Automatic annotation (TrEMBL), chain A:
Its cofactor is [2Fe-2S] cluster. Coiled coil: none annotated. The keyword Disulfide bond does not apply. GO terms for molecular function: 2 iron, 2 sulfur cluster binding; metal ion binding. Gene3D superfamilies: Rieske [2Fe-2S] iron-sulphur domain (2.102.10.10). Belongs to the bacterial ring-hydroxylating dioxygenase ferredoxin component family. It comes from the Bacteria. This is Non-heme iron oxygenase ferredoxin subunit. Keywords: 2Fe-2S, Iron, Iron-sulfur, Metal-binding. Pfam families: Rieske (PF00355). Residues 8-104 form the Rieske domain. Transmembrane segments: none annotated.
UniProtKB/TrEMBL annotation, chain B:
PANTHER family: APOPTOSIS-INDUCING FACTOR 1, RIESKE DOMAIN-CONTAINING PROTEIN-RELATED. This is Pyridine nucleotide-disulfide oxidoreductase. Residues 322-406 form the Reductase C-terminal domain. Its cofactor is FAD. Residues 7-303 form the FAD/NAD(P)-binding domain. It comes from Ferruginivarius sediminum. Keywords: FAD, Flavoprotein, Oxidoreductase. GO terms for cellular component: cytoplasm. It comes from the Bacteria. One of its GO terms (molecular function) is oxidoreductase activity, acting on NAD(P)H. Residues 387-410 are annotated as: Disordered. Pfam families: Pyr_redox_2, Reductase_C.
Length: 109, 410
């Protein structure tokens, strides 16, 4: 996603993000799940595509997050759904860190 | 496997539906037929005692797939159709109409049926059981505001119906034979917490209730206990467990032991025949024993494993058993199948409405009941899978994330 197509929003402090402990941020109406993994910080949409549940309440296992409600799984780096009962992917958002601020790039408009 | 092979799935419930998807997904390119006794395409049952009863969700949200899915994937659904017999010698099924259907491989996902009470008055109108979509729609219609509903059985089904009935403005009594609610499913203190929850919502809970008869003319008017107490009823709902539909397999001479006996990949004692879901007794390598499970997880994932294996992708099923129940605004999740337990550790505050009770044996977590604490389930499952020993003080401290407790346990 090119920078000009996204709007950057500060959603967390890098120093406060613990490895594999997801954090939740609300940007407008969009719920975002932010997670620090071994090789960086990643952000995906926080709402499971199966039934309403927040993925940030879920469990991080490697580079996947498991929904707390019915154990659907999504890749934190790509948003790809990897386990039933969900079938659709969640959106994945670009992340940049400036100083201690973690920014998430959401589509404009 | 060849393009001309025919694979048949018997049973179009959640397990049958997921198994068929998995067979195709694993690359099977021959004819694939799913035979189902019900009139509708495969659906999952959890909403039937929850959102469908309360009206919070349309019944069609329960379907696994859109109607077009089956045509698009070359899956033939033969609905409203019962299989009467399996002739293993000629590899043919006999259908209820007398027609036959040849198979190269067969998967049995015949599921379960409700256990029915055989008491005086059992045949009266207005006595309901809840298993399929039509049952759910019938009960939903009967739950009119002001109706007196007597529920026999204080397990998941009975209590979910109780919660739905209260939401619809019915007067509700739950009659449970045991000395507490959900005794087979959860720890006593969790069952007691639920009894309080239901009482706060206006449900009358009667434990130690030995139901002796249904009374009434043509319709049920009361449910009577052995001690003579009669509870007036406009309708009764009975939820006293389910029985696996093993007859088809047993009659065909397959090995059956309270469930069709299968290996970790879903194979029965006949290599051409697989079985999936509620009806199977399968080995669970994490628990170290054979189990028969009545759960959504098993109906989906064990069926996927069996389906893949049948299509040539050897896939053992190995998951920690997991169950859930929704009553009012409380989500209960259970993980593990603890048999012997020597310690319970509580995390969180029951008074505050969210807590988890861990079952420990020899310092290891063997199960948990999580009340409005769904996020505790995945790390608990990790503990069960790895056998890691948690520090009980860390475990009981809600301020310490379970991820940390897990890491500390190595």
């Amino acid at each position: 996603m090119a920078d000009q197509n996204v709007e950057w929003h500060a959603v967390a402090k890098a120093s406060e993000l613990e490895a594999e402990e997801p954090e939740f941020a609300k940007v407008g109406d969009t719920l975002v799940c932010v997670v620090r993994l071994d090789d960086g910080i990643y952000a995906i949409n926080d709402v499971c595509t199966h039934e309403f549940a927040q993925l940030s309440e879920g469990f991080v296992d490697g580079c996947e997050i498991e929904c707390p409600l019915h154990q659907a799984r999504f890749n934190l780096k790509t948003g790809k759904c990897t386990e039933l009962p969900a079938e659709d992917d969640v959106a994945s958002y670009p992340v940049k860190v400036e100083g201690d601020d973690v920014y998430v790039g959401l589509p404009k408009g | 496997m060849s393009r001309t092979d025919t694979y048949v799935v018997v049973g179009a419930g959640q397990a049958g539906g997921r198994a068929a998807e998995a067979i195709r997904g694993a690359g099977f390119s021959g004819r694939l037929v799913v035979v189902g006794a019900e009139r509708v395409r495969p659906y999952e049952r959890p909403p039937l005692s929850k959102q469908v009863l309360t009206g919070a969700a349309a019944p069609d949200t329960a379907f696994l797939r859109a109607p077009d899915y089956y045509d698009e994937h070359g899956i033939e659904l033969m609905l409203n159709q019962r299989v009467e017999a399996i002739d293993r010698g000629s590899a043919r099924l006999t259908l209820a109409g007398g027609e036959t259907l040849a198979y190269d491989k067969l998967l049995l996902a015949t599921g379960s049926r409700v256990r029915r009470l055989a008491l005086p008055g059992s045949e009266l109108a207005g006595i309901h059981y809840l298993r399929d979509l039509d049952d759910s729609l019938t009960i939903a219609k009967a739950l009119r505001a002001g109706a007196r509903v007597v529920i026999v059985g204080g397990g998941y089904i009975g209590l979910e119906v109780a919660a739905a009935a209260r939401k619809r403005g019915c007067a509700v009594t739950v009659l449970e034979a045991g000395d507490g609610l959900m005794r087979r499913q959860v720890a006593e203190e969790v069952g007691d917490w639920y009894a309080d929850l239901h009482r706060r919502h206006g449900v009358e809970i009667v434990t130690g209730a030995n139901v002796e008869a249904f009374e009434g003319g043509s319709r049920v008017q009361a449910v009577r206990l052995a001690d003579g107490t009669a509870y007036p009823a406009d309708l009764a709902v009975v939820g006293v467990g389910i029985l696996p539909n093993v007859e088809l397999a047993a009659d065909a001479g397959l090995e059956v032991d309270d469930g069709i006996v299968v290996d970790a990949c879903g194979r029965t004692s006949d290599p051409a025949i697989f079985a999936a879901g509620d009806v199977t007794r399968h080995p669970n390598p994490i628990l170290g024993r054979r189990v028969r499970l009545e759960s959504w997880q098993n109906a989906q994932n064990q069926a996927v494993a069996a389906g893949r294996t049948m299509a040539g992708e050897e896939t053992p099923y190995a998951q920690v058993p997991w169950f859930w129940s929704d009553q009012y605004d409380v989500n209960l999740q259970m993980v593990g199948l603890p048999d012997r337990v020597d310690r319970l550790v509580r995390r969180g505050d029951p008074e505050g409405g969210a807590f988890t009770l861990f079952y420990l044996k020899d310092g290891r977590i063997v199960g948990a009941n999580a009340v409005n604490s769904a996020k505790d389930i995945a790390p608990t499952r990790k503990f069960i899978e790895t056998g890691a020993k948690p520090d009980p003080d860390m475990l009981s401290d809600p301020e310490t994330s379970l991820k940390k407790v897990l890491k500390a346990a190595g």
